[in-house]
Specification:
Elements (H helix, E strand, L loop, with lengths): L1 H7 L12 H12 L1 H9 L3 H13 L5 H37 L1 H23 L6 H8 L4 H9 L3 H9 L3 H13 L2 E2 L1 H17 L6 E2 L2 H11 L2 H14 L1 H11 L10 H9 L3 H9 L3 H9 L3 H13 L5 H20 L16
Antiparallel strand pairs: 1-2
Helix pairs in contact: 1-2, 1-6, 2-4, 2-5, 5-6, 6-11, 7-9, 8-10, 9-12, 10-12, 10-13, 12-14, 13-14, 16-18, 16-19
Length: 350
Amino acid sequence: MADQLETFGGSGRRSTTMMSGLRKAAILLVALGEETAKEILRSLAEPDVQLLTEELAELRNVPPELSSAVIEEFWEVMETQSFMVQGGLDYANRLLTETFGKERAQDLMTMVRRSQEAAQGNLAKLQRTDPQQLGKLLDAEHPQTIALVLAHLDPRRASQVVDNLSEEHKVVSLQRLAEMRQFSPEMAQKVAHSLHRRLESMGDTQRQNYSGFKAVADLLNRLNADEAKHILEVVENRDPALALNIRNLMFTFDDLMTVPPATIREIVSGVDKRQLALALRGAKEELRATIFKSMSSRAVEMLKEDMEVLGPVRAREVTQSQQEILNLARRLEAEGKVILKLETGDEMLA
């Protein structure tokens, strides 16, 4: 957070030109009012609270125009982050230039980039932390904090961290990760600062878009099968729609191209032929070829005829048919009759 405050003060204008980020933060807290200021201070790390408290104590009379200038600059920084999330750097730069002019737009972009780089860089350092130690450390944190850290780890390391969480935290943290859409650089910086400080004491020498469902799916694919199944079942009891979204990303209809031929044959044999014809109407040519290879030439000809006589079909009917076939595939996998995913380095032996 301290780095973010200095970043806030990195470029000024009007009467805020030579003011430090810490002083601007103190003025902003006063301008926001006592109740809001209390909530903000509660969310900060202890060193940051101390710094801000000392700065607040030194504040005397703040002219209204100075408060307005600080609030306006803070709003512009937040708008810049929002523009960057919505449409990327070029989009943000164009809108900011049109709104504030070229020079001010460049200042704002520089401030936000510096903030994001600092937040991501500090959390990226956690990649080098021992997963077992990091897992035990995170187990004492709020699930949202755990989810934020997991979002910055590669799936393999994240799965090792999850293995070292308590049962309750495993489920809740992955649920928070799946629901995550954005995170703020300020919050990431605060979490990184706190964790690094605690790691050191233990002897361990932007707002951005985020696809939480995919992250959880990748992570669960790397966990022990029974563990992943248990976590998904608990999530499903709490939020069936959320669990379904995760399951769908763990194995998609296109992934049928990667399964063993015996699995394809087992699935095809249990599917209604019209349903298969519907599902394949919206499938890639490579997937169609994969499925055709698992069938006799006569069966392939009949299936192609069924696909032709269907005529125009609704996209949702195709999606529903594909989903029902995936549901069958997962049931067969749960019964031990098929294998849907091979771990890296695994191979099928005759």
